[in-house]
Write a structure and sequence with these properties.
The complex is a heterodimer of chains A (about 160) and B (about 525). Chain A has about 160 residues and is an alpha+beta fold. Helices cover about 45% and strands about 10% of the residues of chain A. Chain A is elongated and about 50 Å long. In chain B, the strands form four sheets. In chain B, strands 2-1-3-4-5 form a five-stranded mixed β-sheet, with helices on one face. Classes of the chains: A alpha+beta (about 160), B alpha/beta (about 525). The structure holds flavin mononucleotide and iron/sulfur cluster.
Chain lengths: ~160, ~525
């Protein structure tokens, strides 16, 4: 995914392609984030002018939704469910483990820019709790041991 | 006829290895030069058995589970393709008591069919409801839905027929149908299973709603935490377009319905219908004042039918078999079936579709088999993060909207989360406040600020700092939240908090009688 690099032309193309849809802003933001891993702050004026909105309006939307990042994430994004069902099945030990192991808090990226840790409130994976998502892959019935070997694999990949 | 093997592509099944199992099977079949068709079905909802593999045999579909990739060779050696015995063999899938004892109306095809095969859908009764609806007037469709007694399954349990009637009777140049697939309630996954296991039933339900009220455009708003569901819906929509079930002149009726799937962006509040509409319009998900209700003034200010996934997916069978058929299930004012989602610390978690009236105890013990840890059940949260915590002693309540309300709970979207006796209920109360603070749209002060205060106050109670005074303060805060909030996020957060305090005072360092003090 992200290298932190983004290019204006690509953003302008995305805006041009989607801007005539009803309620185009969220689809545009999703497409930009899929492409670059975040919403580059400098892309906001391009989006705003394409949709005839003020920059403040676009910024307001970006900052409202938890999904949209304003900084590039690490190479791998680890998302841990914090909701009740996963709590009932030991999510706290997963969270403690990852925070300690990666020296990260929720929302943070490690210094090497390798891992980003994000909280999620339910993946709908509650019948296979606790759940963790790494990049696009979802894992159920997770244990600290399996998570440890998963992180090791990602590091050595 | 080539042999069929089923391995779910349901994202929860995938989360415990279903993709790897499917790959192992494909590899092994190739090596053994066996020709068979591998179908990626939805999940039957027997999640403790996932990944659950089924093979088609003259004796019906024989199930094996939970299967890991390492089991595949030995299963094939044992004769799995003929449905032979093996320690993982579960017998015919439909004879597994957990499944056999359900009343699957809305979920009749989930796990059974290839989710993306329109042919499968139609041969299993799909699109009969729409065909019938196309021969009826809007008012007649409304009548059928009213007669079914169907109430919204998203949480508020509002009668669906009445909502449609309002949209039908509001004249406008443009109307919309919006499906709420934000499924934000933790402990719930029925919407997800439907989208991944039988997407056409959702499309058919939305199309019937559109035909009923005269809407020509629709959106299904899917939470971004469900990438699998989104992809499945996008593919199913494209297939419905190609085959004349969406777009212009649906099935030669002259009726038009355009449907698009949209992604949310990680905001619980966007499950609230008016915030969802704002979000679809490309704005921040801020709750709107009501009235007007969305059926009068909804998306882009136009009359909009907005319903939950399960609600809409229940409509095709109602149109096919009649409102009376559906109404015959259930009890009191809770008609039809409830799609119960059993999760948390429970031995057999899963999807249980039952007529209303079944008790919590039956669900948790007879279906669920008690806790996964083997320890005693201590608390149960019913109805999502804003639902009440109930102690074990209250599990005899029947699942019926009114009966549950009478004991201070709510059914919501039908999620049940079980906790064993290691749970700290003061921490769960604290979490409820934290969740409210994290997810508030920010419009009302009690919700935005009061929830953060709530976390601090609970922390002080836990620490034993001026306990009585702080409990009093917590009650006051809850009172303010309840009456000073525009929507149920702020308004219902007191439910989990106060029910935890009431039923589990010892966890807050209180004697039982102290928790009762006003
Ligand atoms: C904070 C909040 C979150 C909600 N989340 C959802 C949700 O995720 N899915 C849903 O269908 N309804 C949700 N609702 C209920 C909707 O506002 C609305 O009542 C429902 O979608 C209407 O459809 P129905 O009548 O078919 O249930 C939520 C309500 C509130 C107050
Ligand atoms: S109660 Fe909370 S979430 Fe609901 S409208 Fe008010 S601030 Fe927004």
């Amino acid at each position: 995914m992200s290298s932190g690099l983004w290019d204006k032309t690509a953003v302008a193309e995305i805006v041009a392609e989607l801007k005539d849809r009803e309620g185009a802003l969220l689809p545009i933001l999703h497409r930009i984030q899929d492409r670059f891993g975040y919403i580059p702050p400098d892309s906001i004026p391009i989006i705003a002018s394409g949709l005839n909105l003020s920059r403040a309006e676009v910024h307001g939307v970006v900052s409202f939704y938890r999904d949209f990042r304003s900084e590039p994430p690490g190479v791998h994004v680890i998302r841990i469910c914090r909701a009740e069902s996963c709590q009932a099945m030991g999510a706290a030990s997963l969270i403690d483990y990852v925070k300690q192991e990666l020296k990260l808090e929720f929302g943070g990226t490690d210094r090497e820019g390798f891992f980003t840790l994000e909280p999620v409130y339910c993946f709908g994976n509650c019948a296979c709790s606790p759940a963790v998502m790494v990049d696009e892959q979802i894992y159920g019935r997770m244990t600290p041991e399996r998570l440890e070997s998963l992180l090791r694999k990602l590091r050595s990949a | 006829m080539s042999r069929k093997i089923y391995v779910p592509a349901d994202s929860s099944a995938v989360s415990v290895g279903a993709d790897a199992v499917a790959q192992a099977i494909e590899r092994a079949l190739k090596q053994r030069a066996i020709s068979a068709q591998l179908v990626r079905n939805g999940s039957r909802g027997l999640y403790w058995l996932e990944p659950m593999v089924e093979v088609e045999t003259p004796r019906g579909r024989i199930a094996y589970g939970p299967v890991s990739p390492e089991n595949v060779e030995e299963l094939l050696d044992a004769g799995m393709l003929e449905g032979a015995a093996h320690r993982l063999c579960l017998g015919p899938a439909e004879d597994i008591p957990y499944l056999r004892n359900q009343e699957r109306l809305t979920f009749s095809r989930v796990g059974l069919v290839d989710p993306l095969s329109l042919e499968d859908y139609v041969s299993h009764g799909g699109y009969r409801g729409l065909r019938r609806a196309l021969e009826m007037s809007g008012a007649e469709i409304v009548e059928e839905v009213v007669a079914s007694g169907l109430r919204g399954r998203g949480g508020a349990a509002f009668p669906t027929g009445i909502k449609w009637k309002t949209a039908l009777e509001t004249p406008a140049d443009q109307k919309y149908v919006v499906c709420n697939a934000d499924e934000g309630d933790s402990g719930t996954f029925a919407d997800r299973m439907l989208m991944e296991g039988d997407p056409f039933v959702v499309i058919e339900g939305m199309t019937i709603a559109a035909v009923c009220v005269g809407a020509t455009r629709g959106y299904i708003y899917i939470r971004s935490e469900y990438p699998h569901s989104y992809r499945t819906m996008v593919k199913a929509i494209a297939s419905a377009y190609r085959n004349g079930y969406l777009g212009e002149d649906i099935l030669g009726s002259g009726k038009t319905f355009h449907l698009e799937a949209r992604l949310g962006a990680g905001a619980y509040i966007c499950g609230e219908e008016t915030a969802l509409l704002e979000s679809l319009e490309g704005k921040r998900g801020m709750v709107r004042f009501r009235p007007p209700v969305p059926a009068v003034k909804g998306l882009f200010g136009k009359p909009t039918v907005l319903n939950n996934v399960v609600t809409l997916a229940s409509v095709p069978i109602i149109l096919e078999k009649g409102g009376k058929f559906y109404h015959a299930y259930g009890t009191g004012r809770s008609r039809g079936t409830l799609t119960i989602q059993l999760a948390g610390n429970v031995k057999r978690p899963g999807l249980i579709e039952k007529a209303f009236g079944v008790t919590l105890r039956e669900i948790i013990y007879e279906y669920g088999g008690g806790t996964a840890s083997g320890r005693p059940v201590r608390a149960v949260q019913l109805g999502g993060p804003l639902g009440a915590y109930l102690p074990e002693s209250m599990l005899d309540v029947p699942l019926d909207y009114e009966a549950v309300a009478s004991v201070g709970g709510m059914i919501g979207h039908g999620g049940i989360v079980v906790f064993d006796d290691t749970v700290d209920m003061a921490q769960m109360a604290r979490y409820a406040m934290e969740f409210c603070a994290a997810e508030s749209c920010g419009k009302c002060t009690p919700c935005r600020i009061g929830s953060t205060r709530g976390v601090e106050v609970i922390d002080r109670i836990i620490a034993g700092i001026e306990r009585e005074a702080n409990v009093e303060l917590l009650r006051d805060l809850c009172e303010t939240l309840k009456y000073g909030s525009l929507c149920a996020l702020g308004g219902l957060t007191p439910m989990p908090v106060l029910s935890a305090l009431k039923h589990f005072p010892q966890d807050f360092g209180l004697l039982p009688q102290e928790a009762e003090l006003r």
